[in-house]
Amino acid sequence: MPHYQGQMSSKLPNMGSSIFSTMTQLANKNSALNLAQGFPDFSPDKELIKLCKKYFNGKNHQYAPMAGIPELRNTISRLAEHWYTQKYDPATEITIVPGATAGIYAALTALVKENDEVIIFEPNYDCYVPAIRLQGAKPVYVTLQHPEYKIDWDHVKRLVNFKTKAIIINTPNNPTSTLFSAEDMRHLAELTKNTDIWILSDEVYEHILFDGYEHQSVARYPRLAERSIIACSLGKTLHTTGWKLGYLLGPENLMTEIRKVYQYMIFSANTPLQMAINEYLETYEDRINLASLYGQKRDYFLQKIKKSRFKVLPCKGTYFALLDFSKISNEDDFEFAKKLTEQHKIASNPTSVFYRNKINNHALRFCFAKEEKTLKAAAEILCQV
Length: 385
Ligand code: PMP
Ligand code: GLN
Description:
about 40% helix, 13 strands, globular, 2 domains, about 15% strand, single chain, alpha/beta, Aspartate Aminotransferase, domain 1, binds glutamine
C-alpha cells in the first residue's frame, strides 16, 4: 500500500530480522533440517496437554491478575526455594510474563534510563541490546574470547563508572554453552557491593546443565539476589517455546517498578495455560529432569559427528553446541551457514551475529533439542561436509 511521504526516523536503524527468523526461513525455503532456531522438535508431556484441554474446556478464559494467577506464583515460589534456597514472596516478588523476552524488556524499560550504561558480555543473546537502546541507554560490551569465553573480571571492573546502571548475565549461556562458576559469582558480588547497580540474570536454561555442574543462580547468593531480577522461561522448561510463558523473580523494590511498566505493556499472561502449568508443576515437578534428557541428546549428537571434520567446543549447558568449521572452510560464518542450508540441507546459526562487530570465530551453533532421528539425520549430513 502507498505510504505517506514524510520523514520516518527509525528507533532501531541498523536492526533487521533476528538471525533465528532469517535462518528458519532459509531452512524452510530449502527444506533443510532446522537446527538453527532453538526449539524442541518433540511434543511436551501428554499430561500437560491433558491439563491444557481441561482448562481450555473450563471457564477460565478471561484476564488473569496482572502479576499472574496466585496459584502459579505460589508454586513457583515453592520451587525456587526448593531449587535455590531463596524465598520469593508470591505477592510482590514474582511476576508471570508471556515469555522471558517480554520480562527482560519490561525490566530494562522500567529500570534503565536515558544515558545509563548497561554492561553485557558478548557474544550475547539478541534481545538485550535493542531493549537497552530503546531506553536511550548504552550497552557497554565485555568481549569474551573464543573458544574459552572466560570473563576477565578486572576488565569488567574498569568499565564500571557512575553511569553503570545494570549488568546482564546469562548462565547457562546462549550461544556459548558455558556456565558461570561460583568464582564468577563471587566476582560479581564483589563488583556490585556498595553500588546501585542491579543485575538482570537471564536463567532461561537453569535446568539444562551437564556433567554434574550446578546452576549458579543469583538466587543462591543473598548479596546478589537482593539486587537481581531473574528471567525464567517455561517454554524451555516444559518444551513449549510457542506458548510464550515465563516469569520474573526479584526483590519487591525492583519488581514494583517493573510491574508498573508491565501492566501497560502487556497487563497479564494467558490464563488457562497458567492454570494448566500450575497443576502440572504442582504434581509433576520431579519430572523436570532436563539435565538428563538433554545430556543424552548432547552425547548422542556429538558422538555421531565424531568422524566429521567439525571440531566440537565444550558444551556444559543449554541445548546448543558450537561446532568449529575452520578445518573445512575459511569463509565468513554466515556465508558458510547459508551454504550448509542451501546445499547440504542443514541449518545452523552463525555465531558472529551475537557480536556487535560480527567477529568470525568459524563457529556455528547447532540446537540439539531434537528427536533422535533428527539428530541422526543431522549427524549424517555433517559427516559428509
Ligand atoms: N534468553 C535466552 C538466553 C534465550 O535463549 C531465550 C530464547 N530461547 C530467551 C531469553 C527468551 O525466552 P522466551 O522464549 O521465554 O521469551
Ligand atoms: N532463543 C531461541 C534461540 O536462541 C530463539 C528465539 C527466537 O526465535 N526469538 O535460538
